[in-house]
Amino acid sequence: MDNHKRAWTYVLIAAVFEVVFALGTNGSEGFTHLGWSITTVLAAAGGIFFLSLAVKTLDVGVGYTVWTGIGSVGTVVFGTIVFHESLSPLKVACFVLIIGGVVGLKLTSRTAPAR
Predict the structure, then answer these.
(1) How far is 21 from 39, CA to CA, in rounded Å?
(2) Which percentage of the chain shows pLDDT scores above 70?
(3) Are 25 and 79 in contact (CB under 8 A)?
(4) Residue 52 and residue 61: Cα distance in Å, rounded?
(5) 24, 26, 85, 99: most buried by Cβ count inside 10 Å?
(6) What is the 3-state secondary structure (H, E, C) of 30-42?
(7) What is the DSSP-derived secondary structure letter of residue 114?
C-alpha cells in the first residue's frame, strides 16, 4: 500500500476512534461512569495517534477536516441509534453537505511535501 492510501486508512481509523470518543463522552455523563470514561480517554488517544500518522503524508488541514467531518456524521448516526437522539430532515440535509465536503477534500487532496 502506498503512503497516500495508508494515510487515508489512518484517517478512517482515527475517525472511528473519534466517534467512539464522542459517544463515550456522552455515556460517561461527566466522567462519572468508569467504563465509559476509560473508553473515552482511550478513544481520544487512539484518534489523535492515528491522525498524527495520517498528517505525516496528508496536508493537516485536509486530514483534520476529513477526520472531524467523518467523526461528526458518525456521531450523529450512532448517537441516534445508541442514545435515541433526534434526527430531523434538516439535520440529515446538513450532514449530506458535510459528507459532500469530505468527499470533495478527499478527491482534491495531494500528498504533502516531504518534511
Answers:
(1) 7
(2) 95
(3) no
(4) 12
(5) 24
(6) CCCCHHHHHHHHH
(7) P
Crossing angle of helices 34-54 and 60-83, rounded to 10° = 150
Average pLDDT, rounded, for the chain: 90
What would the grid cell of residue 72 be? Answer: 461528526
CA 25, CA 41: separation in Å to the nearest integer? 9
Angle at 12 between CA 61 and CA 91, to 5 degrees: 80
Instruction: Give the pLDDT confidence of 24-57 residue by residue, as tens digits.
Output: 999 999 999 999 999 999 999 999 999 999 999 9
Cell of 89: 430532515
1-30 burial: b if 16+ Cβ within 10 Å, else e = eeeeeebbebbebbbbbbbbbbbbbebbee
In the chain, helix, strand, coil percent, each to 5? 80, 0, 20
